[in-house]
Amino acid sequence: MTLVFPGPDAHVQHLETEADDTPSGTGTVGDDTAASRTSANPGDIGRRVAEERRRRGLSREETARRARISPQYLAYLEEQPSDPSTATLLALAGALDTTAGSLRGGGVDRPPGQGHALLHPRLNDLDQEECRRLLSTHGVGRVAVTAPDGRPAVVPVNYEVVDDAIVFRTRPGSVPAAAAGNEVAFEVDHVDEAMSQGWSVLAVGPATTVTEPDALRDLARRAHTEPWAGGTRDTWVSVRPTRLTGKRITPADQSARR
User: Fold this and answer.
1) Residue 53 vs residues 35, 39, 58, 148, 204: alpha-carbon distances, Å
2) Which tens digits make up the pLDDT trace of 98-115?
3) Average pLDDT estimate for 238-244
4) In Å, what is the CA distance from 201 to each residue of 143, 188, 238?
5) Is the Cβ–Cβ distance between 67 and 82 less than 8 Å?
6) Are 84 and 77 in contact (CB under 8 A)?
7) Which DSSP state fits 176?
8) What percent of the chain has pLDDT over 90?
9) Measured between alpha carbons, how far is 256 from 258 in angstroms, rounded to an integer?
10) Alpha-carbon distance 245 to 100, whole Å?
């Protein structure tokens, strides 16, 4: 079977939009005038592709090269409502180390890991370098703390990695804020539902509240995203790992590192 990927002269069908938004019909991807007739209004797939690409630090050109599609088509996909073919989604998912279902947003209301296990799985320990790479620079992780009421709690937070420290924003008196002054555990992971593979990284270390004005300004400047929970969250908590461990599940005939 031969898969043909869209090139610079590919044609795509617009998704249905409001009458005053995007004209119906087809547009030529390689023609700048076709894309410029409408303002940038990416669909959900385009937004997910762009976010995954930026999260991995990839340019459009590099992502297009990996997926074997044209950079012009990728730009169109990220900026305009469109419905790419299954072959294109699979190619982009491979280039971004994710799944086509994830790019479509499927399963967002289901917890991961409900699929079948691999026939011959291998559980590999990750070294320190790989753990740091997977922890990356920002994303969503979970902090395990003892809540103000004395009960254990695990809370998801948007985090950054700055100078080897894990930092996140929260509100005074909140559950995540209770991490300050204690040794805590912080976990990040990724699950590839379609392939029954995944990894997890666990960081353990003391947490402190950042109070130095210059440090606070630097953290605010370097932050990639606002906390998803919204509201005013100007208390920064820093976790400096003293222990970093990780695991990865792969097929038995696949190496531990990807």
Assistant:
1) 21, 21, 5, 38, 29
2) 888 878 876 555 555 555
3) 94
4) 12, 5, 17
5) no
6) yes
7) G
8) 39
9) 7
10) 29
Contact 156, 140 (CB under 8 A): yes
Report the C-alpha gap between 246 and 70 in whole angstroms: 36
Q: Which residues pair with 204 in a beta bridge?
A: 185, 243
Q: pLDDT band at 37, cuts 50/70/90?
A: very low
Question: Region 145-165: what's the mean pLDDT?
Answer: 89
Tokens 């043909």 label which residue? 4
Tokens representing residue 207 in the block: 């947490």
CB half-sphere exposure, 240, CA atoms < 13 A: 6
188 touches 138 (CB < 8 A): no
- 184 near 157, Cβ under 8 Å? no
DSSP letters, 119-155, are SSEEEEEPPHHHHHHHH-SEEEEEEEEE-TTS-EEEE
- Could you tell me if 252 and 120 are in contact, meaning their C-beta atoms sit under 8 angstroms apart? yes
Q: Which residue has the tokens 């400047």?
A: 221
The closest alpha carbon to 73, from 99, 35, 103, 22, belongs to: 35
User: What b-and-e string marks burial along 212-244, b requiring 16 or more CB atoms within 10 Å of the CB?
Assistant: eeeeeeebeeebeeebeeeeebebbbbbebeeb
Sequence letter at residue 86: T
User: What is the Rg, in whole angstroms, of the alpha carbon atoms belonging to the chain?
Assistant: 21
Q: Facing residues of 235 across strands?
A: 170
The count of residues in the chain is 258
Q: Helix H segments across 169-238?
A: 213-222
